[in-house]
Design goal:
With 123 residues, the chain is mainly alpha-helical. The chain has one domain. The protein is built from five helices and no strands. The chain starts with a helix and ends with a helix. It comes from Rugosimonospora africana.
Length: 123
């Protein structure tokens, strides 16, 4: 189970590192053109805060569990990404983008698996 969780954490880290870096550096037009259409409903300061949240979650997914320091931060980071995916799915639903909603649901399920799995290993 530990190896599976590490693989899922790595997958989430890659996806959200890309997303967070893109949202923190690209213009609104470039983000939308690159497929990040869900940001169209939000002002750029909200997009930038989301980007920072995603990048902090990437750190939280990997470092605490790897170092054994403040390990509770890993499942909390995964739970935070669940919240981000709920917001993303809501945005893509309003934009009538079913494939994007499906991707959000998949990422939510992966993040939930990591959160539950790592919380279970804390005790």
């Amino acid at each position: 189970m530990n190896l599976t969780l590490w693989i899922l954490q790595g997958l989430l880290a890659v996806v959200f590192a890309y997303s967070g870096l893109a949202k923190s550096t690209m213009s609104r037009q470039r983000l939308i053109a690159s497929g990040q259409t869900g940001i169209a409903l939000f002002p750029m300061p909200v997009v930038r805060v989301t980007a920072v949240s995603e990048l902090l979650a990437v750190i939280g997914l990997l470092l605490p569990w790897a170092t054994g320091t403040a390990r509770v931060l890993t499942p909390l980071a995964a739970a935070g990404l669940c919240v981000v995916m709920i917001g993303a799915a809501s945005s893509h639903t309003r934009l009538r983008e079913p494939w994007a909603v499906a991707a959000n649901v998949l990422l939510f399920a992966i993040a939930l698996t990591v959160a539950v799995g790592r919380f279970g290993q804390l005790g």
